[in-house]
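mind reviewing both lines:
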Amino acid sequence: MNRLTYLFLILLLPLMAACVDEDEYDDTPQGNFEALWKIIDEHYCFLDYKQHEYGLDWQQVYNKYRVRVQGQLTDLQLFEVLTQMLGELRDGHVNLSTSYDYGRYWSWFENYPANVSDTLLRRYMGTDYKIASGLRYRILDDNIGYIRYESFSSPIGEGNIDEALMYMMLCQGLIIDIRGNGGGDLTYAELLAARFCKEKTLVGYTQHKTGKGHSDFSSLEPQYIEPSGNIRWTKPVVVLTNRQVFSAANEFTMYMKAMPMVKVVGDHTGGGAGMPFSSSLPNGWVVRFSAIPTYDAQRQSTEFGIDPDYYVSLSDEDVLKGRDTIIEFARQLLRE
């Protein structure tokens, strides 16, 4: 996302907050239910998309769950009903926060193989790997560079990336392992992707809500990654993914797929293509939801994830041998 678009969206969020809070509801099970349903109905950004993808009907969801908040409910019972209702959205960015629990939808990775092993990663990293803020890196014994970035919530700066790339400059290829990366700050995703960009590259599009209707959106606004003015990598790159790659990490995968010398290896990513926003219910519980949708360079939503160029899973046989099937496939790909 370019800086002007990002700043515009940040400035837009307070206006959205005013829209969310303009109607008052009683602090009762029924009032909290009505407030939550309406927040999603007017501000969630994927209702039309998910109706098309799997038949989600938000009005039917209302009818289904409204009967469950009749009469007196305890807070625990209300929390269960509201969390199950939000689960109908199938969105890892949709959460309900209380002082005692965190309502979430995590089936986007919990229902699939992990395809990453801490034990195997320790074997490949050893104990003498380099650390540059959020980056862990080393040179593997076949002269392949390896970077492990576990979370885009871990900050990185231009100097950190410079040091890592300079250290591996003589390697014949580079692996960037983001398996298990659940996202974080998009700024770091853009910063890192810019090191593999040869020219200004269209990587996707974004929209913002213009009204309360499910289809009220602005026109698509292009997103570009521009080449970094610092050290850039021009040799082949393989990005490793699994189902836990989500949100900003999903966006990073989308950026890298637009770069000609990059291949993605591993599993389908977890998705999460909506910029999240939060609002409060009358009882003080906080709901987070996707408010601003993004799309890839082909104008397709990546809300439900991104396909790798090569599907590869950890095999039991390799694990028993202490081998990471996905890393080994990437090494072979780079050697060829």
User: Anything to note?
Assistant: The chain is about 35% helix and 20% strand. Residues 1-11, 14-20 have pLDDT under 50 and may be disordered.
